[in-house]
Amino acid sequence: MMPFVKVWIHFVWSTKNREPFLTDGIRQKVFQHVRENAAEKDIYLDCIGGYVDHVHCLISLGTDQTIEKIMQLIKGESSFWINKNRLVKTRFEWKTSTSLCL
Prior knowledge:
Largest sheet: 4 strands, antiparallel
Number of helices: 2
Radius of gyration: 14 Å
Number of strands: 4
Structural class: alpha+beta
């Protein structure tokens, strides 16, 4: 019998320089995109939230997934998507560091 393991990680990251880019209209679009992108990549995202300058995600890590890869697929892809869709007037970037609560 295989053991059952469930690892939950609370990710928190912010916009570069804590710029308030994630205004009400943009924030919900970004959150929806992150949800859809996670689902497409078999990432179990339980919930997402945040405010104008940061995002929180609660993710269940799969047995073949690493923290680094999950963050690349979510954080990196979302900044690319925000810029591609020109949701903000200047170049959008996330802060390079991410906080984790295991």
